[in-house]
Design brief:
Blueprint lengths: L2 H11 L10 E3 L16 E8 L14 E12 L7 E8 L15 H11 L13 H5 L3 E5 L5 E6 L11 E6 H6 L29 E7 L2 H10 L2 E5 L27 H4 L8
Parallel strand pairs: 1-3, 2-9
Antiparallel strand pairs: 2-3, 3-4, 4-8, 5-6, 5-9, 7-8
Amino acid sequence: MNLRTLFWLSVITGCLLGPIAKGQIFSFDGYKTSADSYEDANKKAVYFYNDHKLESYGTQSDPIYQTYVRWGVGTDSSETTGTEYFFLYVETPIEVKNMIWGDVVTDQDVLDYNVHYTNHHDDLEKDQFTYGFATGSEKVAFEGADGSTLFETKLKDGSGSTAAGQLDVKSSLDYLLANGATENNSDDANNTNNNTLAVDSTTTAMAFEYKFAFNETDNIALINSIDQIKYHLSPERGLHPTQVPEPSGTLLLGIAATPGILRRKRKVTIF
């Protein structure tokens, strides 16, 4: 098979092979920051839905919005062994879920969350935004093209089914707790209790970061198998994603994601 034939076959199948980008560094802490080497080329947009409140963000068969799945190959900044891993990362759009509980919650936050929550529970009050309420039932599930669950993770403790080669997982909850948040308050930086926190939970989305053994074949197969994301959000924030991403480019791990917009052309909003 010549190079031209291989190129067009890869375009049709959505699997454009390329060199594996190595030598990157990742701060494996549950949240993507400037300390991580998630390159824009290594991502694909996938649709998501919330199975707890189906009409808010669509359903499994009829989702509305997209988010990015990102990945990279490199070392864990907390280790000195030089071992390279495959890292995978996903987060909700901030309009859908931010990580707030305790004193940081404002009247406006209550209104935002009540936009959807009122329709399937009683109206929320500020004192209901506790640690357990914000994190207790939340989870993410990665689904294949047939709708089956490939692997899933609960926010509160990281438990759930795992994918082949998965070594560890951390979430934005771990990230906040490691940066001064407590079960009493997600973020004191915006009030008078304690102005020393380095992060702001109001702008921190629900996110999951995975560490896998680096195996090119398995890692590529994993990315290609992820077709859609199922969140369980209760409560979910009552806002709609507005940020439109740039098109995904050629992926350095060896995968070019087929944009979900080609699969469901009538969808108009992408995160």
